[in-house]
Design goal:
The chain has 11 helices and no strands.
């Protein structure tokens, strides 16, 4: 019965994500039809003209909207388009930290039981298994996997016994390489990136891949039991 309920909740979550994606694409298409396709550099020029408070407003939006199961990558890409690399990286990393903290605290102390029914099938058991194998370091490796949505993973981790500060530190460290790489790559599309930053992007992507390979090769408790 519980499995059936979890399956229904997962389908509802997927339906909401699909509807959100459709709404986003529809709005984007409408904007292109109405106003044409703007140059990416025009977006940054517009952001610079909005005033000194715009980065703060965008940071708050980043931190709050990604508490919910919305694509964090959309906000990260926007950081690369709208701001210089230094400002964009600061907003994205800080926004990720605040979002991860709020998601964790909200589920652990307020909405744990209700949120658990909405988690994708198998996510919570996977999180438990990895934490058993590698402790809080597993959080960093899971944050490096783009296929695992940011907010649902935060919810699942809040339902485990992991402590808050190790969770938050691992979230920042694990999310940073991909986040920074996306911003630097997006900045390159605006024509504002130097060769040294392109090299840094390649290094970050490489480090992320190496971390994933190491994590995949390390055994979990289930693997050890199977061998014994």
């Amino acid at each position: 019965m519980e499995k059936s309920v979890n399956g229904t909740a997962s389908r509802r979550l997927l339906a909401l994500q699909i509807l959100g994606a459709i709404a986003f694409v529809t709005a984007a298409v409408w904007g292109i039809v109405q106003f044409g396709i703007p140059d990416l550099a025009d977006f940054r020029a517009w952001a610079e003209q909005t005033g000194r408070w715009f980065p703060l407003v965008f940071f708050i939006a980043y931190a709050l909207f990604t508490v919910f199961p919305t694509p964090r990558s959309v906000f990260t890409i926007a950081c690369g388009v709208l701001f210089t690399p230094a400002v964009g990286i600061t907003i994205a990393v800080a926004g990720t930290a605040v979002s991860g903290a709020l998601s964790f605290l909200m589920v652990r102390f307020v909405a744990g039981d209700r949120v658990q029914r909405w988690l994708p099938d198998g996510l919570l058991s996977t999180v438990h298994r990895r934490l058993q194998a590698r402790g809080w370091l597993a959080v960093g490796s899971m944050r490096m996997i783009p296929a695992i949505p940011f907010a649902p993973l935060s919810y699942a981790l809040a339902l485990t016994g992991i402590k808050f500060w190790p969770y938050l530190l691992a979230t920042i460290i694990g999310s940073a390489p991909n986040t920074i790489a996306v911003i630097l790559f997006t900045d390159a599309l605006t024509g504002g990136q130097s060769p040294s930053l392109i090299i840094l992007t390649a290094i970050l992507v490489t480090l992320g891949i190496i971390g994933l390979i190491i994590d995949m090769r390390l055994p979990t408790p289930d693997d050890v039991k199977d061998k014994s």
